[in-house]
TrEMBL record:
Residues 142-224 form the RCK C-terminal domain. Residues 10-126 form the RCK N-terminal domain. It comes from the Bacteria. One of its GO terms (molecular function) is monoatomic cation transmembrane transporter activity. The lineage of its organism: Bacteria, Pseudomonadati, Pseudomonadota, Betaproteobacteria, Burkholderiales. It comes from Hylemonella gracilis str. Niagara R. It holds the Pfam family TrkA_C. This is Potassium transporter. Gene3D superfamilies: NAD(P)-binding Rossmann-like Domain, Regulator of K+ conductance, C-terminal domain. One of its GO terms (biological process) is potassium ion transport.
Amino acid sequence: MLAKSNSTRRDSVVVIGLGRFGASVARSLVASGHEVLAMDTDEDTVQSLAAELPHVVRADATDLGALKQLSVTDFSHAVVSIGANLEASVLTVLNLAQLGMKDIWAKANSPQHGRITERVGAHHVIYPEADMGERVAHLVTGKMMDFIEFDDGFAIAKTRAPMETHSKTLAMSNVRKKHGITVVGIKRRHQDFIYAKPETEIKPGDHLIVAGPTPLIEKFSALY
Ligand code: ATP
């Protein structure tokens, strides 16, 4: 069991529900050195993750007493990754909110699910399937190699440098003025990413990291 402390652990996370999403969140957090308490009601799930997650316990997060016993409020963040069982998801968020958890992230399978978890105390709602679906749609239908969109229709994408930019500096090709997007970084084969500067020359085969409104990013990527 984790050592108890009176103060809140910085960047320590309780992950509740270890399905594909929750287990992946927990693994990534552990890999990046964070303290993680992972829990699931299913003994087989707990056993199967014991080798990868240093602190994984079988517990029912709808049980307020169990959460208190595990001192979950010593952790700075909670991720509730229970999708299919709406009642368990909502009760878990409610319990965490009642205990005074300051940063609760809840995975939701639908907008209705998301709204309910927000109502009962989730500070952030994540829609992994919907978000990934949207992202893949952009990648499949467009020329982008990677794509992240923010709430306000602003996106960052990795795209191939279009011909019109080849063998010119960014200042010469003037893509910001012509296309309304900003080149923020360049990746050249076998080299690390570099920050884009006005004097940076684009070479055929370069990959560009571009930022701007989503429709303009899509148009720019389609130039290749
Ligand atoms: P996935 O991330 O695989 O898509 P999912 O959205 O289908 O998961 P569920 O199957 O509902 O989500 O739940 C994920 C995990 O949460 C399961 O391993 C389940 O045992 C666990 N779980 C369900 N209820 C509770 C609870 N009350 N307390 C802790 N863990 C729970």
